[in-house]
């Protein structure tokens, strides 16, 4: 992608590196519903803290890290660039993952997907019940903090389930295109479900936004 800069001599295209100079800061996306909209499955207090504190912190830290990275690039300081990469991965992943997560949920969610996505689930997992069981098991089994994902393997043209540790972003670390992410960090459920992660995972299926997951699937197949 190129940035368009205009000057008195007219507009000119500047290569991507030039875009770093005037890059837009990342911002916290608005939720497409109220904090209490997913009750009783995920309560308002969790949603408010999760969005306005946890996700906001990833966004703020990502902006700080990118600023430092920009300086290291300008100086040609490769050592500094390398040392900043874990923070870039963690905060960048946190921002990417949560931005997907909020849209994967809906007060009108639950039930089962329809159409092409449902056909693909049956093809790749045998049945919706099998898929649900498998994604739940992978998410329950994440050690410590992380995510359970339904992703699309573009190379093989099939759906795949994966787990990622911490805030590792699915596509950047596995190559799978993210369709549905389940956050199993304790901050996503502890206030309501204490340490019983399986209860949270049972409840979250009631608010999965299959329309969103389906449109993500349709986009990545193009």
Automatic annotation (TrEMBL):
Q: Which cofactor does it need?
A: Mn(2+)
Any matching Pfam family:
Sod_Fe_C
Domain (Manganese/iron superoxide dismutase N-terminal): give its ranges.
25-106
**Enzyme Commission designation:** 1.15.1.1
Q: Highest taxon of the source?
A: Eukaryota
Top enzyme class, one word, equals oxidoreductase
Supply the alphabetized keyword list.
Manganese, Metal-binding, Mitochondrion, Nitration, Oxidoreductase
Q: Which residues form the Manganese/iron superoxide dismutase C-terminal domain?
A: 113-216
- Localization: Mitochondrion matrix
Q: Could you tell me what reaction this enzyme catalyses?
A: 2 superoxide + 2 H(+) = H2O2 + O2
Annotated GO CC locations: mitochondrial matrix
Q: Which family does it belong to?
A: Belongs to the iron/manganese superoxide dismutase family.
Purpose of the protein: Destroys radicals which are normally produced within the cells and which are toxic to biological systems.
Protein name as annotated: Superoxide dismutase
Please report the organism this UniProt entry assigns to the protein. Answer: Asarcornis scutulata
